[in-house]
Amino acid sequence: MTRKVRFRNVGAGRGIKSELDETTLKRLLIDERLTQGAVARRYGCSPQFVSQLAREYGLARRGQGEAGSRRDR
What we know:
Layout: H1 14-19, H2 22-31, H3 36-43, H4 47-57
Helix pairs in contact: 3-4
């Protein structure tokens, strides 16, 4: 009897990662002030993947000291 194996989307983000390079993601998140969810919908990935890329590229979240965050208003 064969065992049912769950597959992960290993490597699913490779194509998206090439489209969402550091400069593109910075422009979308910081300059255009899109949310991670909006970027994820635009590129067909999860907000968690966008968050992971932002951390990898060293982009700070809005609530962590960036001027114009909701806490400053």
